Amino acid sequence: MGTTDTSTARSERGRSAFTDVMTFEPPADSSPTMTGGLIDFVFAEVWTRTVLSRRDRRFITLSCVADSDVEQPLVDHVYAALNSGDISITEMRETVLHFAVYAGWPKASRFNIIVDMQWERIHRERDLPTPAPEPLLPLVTPSDPEERLVQGTATFKDVNCLPFAPDRDNPYQGAGILNFVFGEMWVRPGLSMRARRLITVACVGFQDAPIPILSHVYAALKSRDISFEEMDELALQFGAYSGLPKAAHLSQVISEQKARVLDEWRAEAGTNSEEQP
Amino acid sequence: MGTTDTSTARSERGRSAFTDVMTFEPPADSSPTMTGGLIDFVFAEVWTRTVLSRRDRRFITLSCVADSDVEQPLVDHVYAALNSGDISITEMRETVLHFAVYAGWPKASRFNIIVDMQWERIHRERDLPTPAPEPLLPLVTPSDPEERLVQGTATFKDVNCLPFAPDRDNPYQGAGILNFVFGEMWVRPGLSMRARRLITVACVGFQDAPIPILSHVYAALKSRDISFEEMDELALQFGAYSGLPKAAHLSQVISEQKARVLDEWRAEAGTNSEEQP
Amino acid sequence: MGTTDTSTARSERGRSAFTDVMTFEPPADSSPTMTGGLIDFVFAEVWTRTVLSRRDRRFITLSCVADSDVEQPLVDHVYAALNSGDISITEMRETVLHFAVYAGWPKASRFNIIVDMQWERIHRERDLPTPAPEPLLPLVTPSDPEERLVQGTATFKDVNCLPFAPDRDNPYQGAGILNFVFGEMWVRPGLSMRARRLITVACVGFQDAPIPILSHVYAALKSRDISFEEMDELALQFGAYSGLPKAAHLSQVISEQKARVLDEWRAEAGTNSEEQP
């Protein structure tokens, strides 16, 4: 059974989806990239899919576009996310910090500047004053280094669904992972665990690091923060923005981790249930 | 006016195009990425387009896939390019060197290993001995450093369609650009100027370097090695493999450089001809 | 034993470290989240660490930032490296060429332009004329192709701590690796072997090329140019600027190569010493 779709109907659907997602009308650009690629595929056929919400697709897209180093798409997607109300300014700022860890501070610095500019722009367009940013302090995490490491270790195990954590006596593992990434960043309020997982899986996807890809896909599924179907959709959204080769690899890893998680759930349940929660 | 296309017909077209391009049948993978993304879009709707040949699309694709750091797609595309006969082993090996310069030696190292393995595999499959590689020496370029710099300077101006070249007294410009990149690599026989331009534009595209993107798009068009329509198709092929954000930027630069090149041709012709050669 | 470290004290330490490293004061806290992360983690807790000098951390950071394609951080870090006197202009220019090979010529082209601009800016700020660049010729390497290949082969083995080198009869291996990368670039005076190794390990890290990562980490340790502790610090510095997932992979490889190098030293020494030289 197939649905019939004239190329005109598809272009119209794409242009309509573009306006809905981006909060402004698509440009009148007739190049193959914009028509065949962006309108007819990315907007007509990816953004319109079900299972993963428009808001969730934004977290994935923002990460990929911020990684791509191209300014205008990032300006547009940040504007659209805030202007639509899908993502709050608090969530957006926490996204930038999370991205800084998973994609590097330099790219995050550009992302950060763009968020401030688009936030101001939106208020100017609405003839409203731009609210002051939330103060950084007080933090919700301990100051004492030993307490931070203890908490970071516990958070690492929680987030990664693992019974162990890395040894602290190593700069990258101790000062980096336990003290800051899991000792501070992952537990900051203002961005949900689910949103953090969407951003993280997209980032490890374009960062091409094999074990992090595997472990973050596993943890996102095992924790039930992202369902199997949602994860499949994530890979396609990611593919549109970071290219099909990386998406094909991510898709392969997802397939393997789904099987692993199912096996583990069955073993834990002591049954042979095929039910995917 | 539009053509009608059932989703089944499109999937069949995609699977057929996959087999034609890759020289083997598509896997039975029902994930959204593979069906919605790869088969229904990349193969059904990009590889099947006219204007740019299948062979030319391979040079662009190989560059993007080699940059993406994912092993299996690169293995598959190298195999397909050689197995189909679209690209000779000599051309493929020169492609690896050209890619090394424009995308970095470490990524090229993996590309190089894969080329050797797939070349051997193809011969094994055909029950033939693997031919010996061509000897490196003698080179076609001068040995004397001063002569190399003079030739490199002339080649730089030719390839870039510029009346000037960088000053030699700088390691990157002198030892690198003039002595090696243009003094040796661009003039090596075994890979045409046209193929080199396809690879270069793809590489500067994913390398996100603003001035090289501009200058290599300009030169590819100004030299008439790549036509306006072929360049538009390049951007879409590139977008499928490196992601739509980078392709949107490349598409924008192409639009600007087309206008610039047209203006220059008109000024040079002293007429107001609209003909695009 | 833990020292008390209020988050205010940490911010102060971070702001002080920023000024010390960057040679200018940190920006005002307009985005506390991001600025908090950058100041409180990257500057307060990474740059202030011992074992790896501020100068050495700059070689790693410059490579990662130049790869990230974001202009302002690269401008700032180039300015800071030259303005502080930690890196000389000769070293900086050789760094650009080394980076060109290991991260791609297009990215290096932007890095090159920025170096020239910041060098001029520093002299303008000091009311001094900008010195003329050093002449490229004469080179210290042979001109004859056969001699270059012989020397390149010897240098390849030395630098990589390997008893073999790639076969010359292949464009990438012969014209590229043996004739240019090791036949010219690695042996250029003006940048020490140690600095070259820091840059190379950072580059192979973000280039995601598995075998080069392994081989360059191995060689840096085996040669004793970089100690085990210094290499661990490199991974953390790298992680802040290129992202956690890539740093996780690099960290894993470092762990494996340390074990391998220790085994080799013990076998060579014929003893069971635990001392790391």
List SSEs of chain A in N-to-C order: HHHHHHHHHHHH
Structural class of chain A: mainly alpha
Radius of gyration of chain A: 20 Å
Q: How many β-strands of chain A, per DSSP?
A: 0
Beta-strand percent range of chain A: under 5%
Instruction: For the record, give the distance between the C-alpha atoms at the N and C termini of chain A, rounded to a whole number.
Output: 29 Å
Overall geometry of chain A: globular
Mean pLDDT figure of chain A: 92
Largest interface: B-C, 58 and 58 residues
Could you list the spans of chain A in which at least 5 consecutive residues all have pLDDT below 50? none
Helix share, percent of chain A: over 70%
Task: Write down the oligomeric state.
Answer: homotrimer
Tell me the number of helical segments of chain A per DSSP (H or I, 4 or more residues long).
12
Largest sheet of chain A: none
InterPro entries (chains A, B, C): 4CMD/NDH-1_regulator, AhpD-like, CMD-like
Domain Carboxymuconolactone decarboxylase-like (chains A, B, C): 176-254
Organism (chains A, B, C): Nocardia fusca
Protein name (chains A, B, C): Carboxymuconolactone decarboxylase family protein
